[in-house]
Amino acid sequence: MNATAVRTIETVEDANKKAVHDDLISPRFYTTDFAAMDRINIEPVRAEWDKMMAEYEGDNNHDHFQRDAAFADEVRDNMAKLSPEMRQEFMDFLVSSLTSEFSGCVLYNEIRKNVTNPDIKQLMTYLARDESRHAGFINLSLRDFNLGIDLGNLKRTKKYTYFKPKYIYYATYLSEKIGYARYITIFRQLEKHPEKRFHPIFRWFELWCRGGNKLWIRFFLLAVYATMYVRDHTRPMLHEAMGLDSSEYDYQVFRITTAITQQVFPLALDTDNPKFRRGLERLFAISQDMEKAKSRGGLIGKLQQGVCAVKALGTFASLYMMPVIQQDLSPQVRMEPAW
Q1: Spatial separation of the C-alpha atoms in residues 287 and 230, rounded to whole Å
Q2: pTM of the model
């Protein structure tokens, strides 16, 4: 199902249509080669693996997602002050965040059900558990506005993208790390400026942050960064309300993500290069032109969409060909927080 794009979120139906909708910047659902996943042998890293599994089993964040007594009062008092436009951006943020978190839950749970390898099954059980908590907690915040997402229907109707296990590693790893960087950047900003925290859900963001291939690594880094940049610049008021500039927020997230991913990736994108920044700005401008073409409709609108697609592909290719930063990999496989 490829639902029509939702301009505003006012009803439960709008929220669910927004979650199901697929375009270049919306969160995706994934499926993979379960048999190949089942054949993964983790023995070369058994000692580190067992330490990681022990941490998962300890479930140190089991009590993080509790709405305290002041939550509802804070929602009522703060949300009444938001402009209709700001409220729309925040609803879009919540729906997008929930869809992204639930995407991981669905993927990990499907892998768990379709493999017999005890190591992979155990890992996927823990990952699905944690992602489910994130998605459920965000959904409760949507329900405060009578906009809860039907997760069962979302799982049945959302379009799935097939990725090989290797690509799943890249995509989900980057998604998790850039999610960490986004959440912790917002939390640190609102920790310094609590008067700008217009919703209590941001108080939990710190608790959510506990924890031939070179060409593909390069591709996924660029795809994730470009998608984030374009998506964030479609809702600038959300960041302004927190005292953040959308561009500077994104580049801070990129820097944190680079600091984390250098533990496992032999290269990083030069995100502070002015040419790189101009390329992302161009992608956003093209996305705006694409939306105008879609709204225009008809033959002219279709032709304009085609022109925009070619321009976007050319810009992405230009960014992909930019020199990258080479870095030595750490001999330690375990990944630690970077900020």
Answers
A1: 7
A2: 0.72
